[in-house]
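Human: Can I borrow your eye for a moment on a structure tokenisation matter? Separate attempts, laid side by side, tell us more than any discussion would. Could you pick a protein and write out its sequence and tokenised fold? No explanation is needed for now; the record alone will do.

Assistant:
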Amino acid sequence: RRKKLKLSPEAQFRAALDRCSRKKDLIAAVSLYESADSPILTLNNLNSFLHICSNALSDAELRGTAIAFGFKLFNFHNDGKLKPNEATLTAVARLAASKGDGDLAFHLAESVKNYGAAPKLRTYSPALMCFSGSGQADKAYQVAEIAETAGLQLEEPELAALLDVSAETGRGDKVYEYLIKLMPLRGVAESTMAIIDGWFRSKMAAEVSSMDVDQDQVKEALLKNGGGKHRLGWLGNGDWITFRSNVNPDGICSGCGKSLVCVDISAAETEKFVHSVASLAALREVEAHFKEFQEWIEEHNEYEAVVDGANVGLYQQNFSEGGFSISQIEDVVREVYAKSEKRPLVVLHEKRVRALLEDASKRELIREWMDQGVLYATPYGSNDDWYWLYAAAKLKCLLVTNDEMRDHIFELIGNNFIFRWKERHQV
């Protein structure tokens, strides 16, 4: 047998600290430190101790010990020999916020830059949460502004805290500012929804709302603007406002059945998305063909819905007698027209259109659609996916398809906007 290597005292200390960290055992960590002979901590060891302390803050029985021990370590070892990094200062900022000292938490977050490190959202979050929780709205706004100026994007916990303190202090302007910043999220927690719901049921919301509208007016506006926005201003009529964005053509959220009143998508982001789709399509398609389609869309921009003809026609047709079903597309066209009194744009490959024209039983319908501007035939050698995707994005239309667009998501990787766009526009 090989002899077991004898660990140095420093290595034994580190191994014991690692065990405390894995188990999140604050009491064992305190005992380890106090039983060591004149412990000289490395920065890595100090950060491990502080991490254990910050993890213990959620335990009411350990919170006091965690705060006292954490500050004892930081103050004793922060003597110039150890240069704290972002992780060090963030952990101590959490301790400061936990004892209600938002000013110290903010000072620690700001001091990260003094050590040549870049602050993260987690660095500013303790101070922001502390100020918000104690009703110090202006200080919370200041922290949020500084974090955003540093290029950091606030996430749901921070935005929810800012919404809450804004609603509690009657700052309607700030409520709507942070509601707008919530919009890119694909969903929110029930606790966040409770804050939003509470605001829109309050008297203050009614006082700052821009107008009163009925549900039919909201549905009509949603349809008119492609399902992603209503452009009616902020509505404070006591109705549920939801950021779950599974909108259907009736303007109803399929996730909860409530009216989808304030879902929106940034116009600037939409334009970037359209440009990305066009750029990729131009690379994949014959440039002249796709440019012709872009020009055609500019002249025919009255559509409120786009139909992926091939996808609808082949829906649930994978059985022995199944095949391309023009009647399924006809049903969708009829339904869209019934909803909006406007015919949709059906995008279908030229090869399928020619086959349909050769069928006497379908020829009349196809010619009627062509005369009415319902049908656009994509040229041979093209992928009609790029055409209906571009049309729907460019015209801010609802898109009728079961296509998950996985290929396009892969090609548009790094652009999370496509996920949000799908949720707000795909039917």
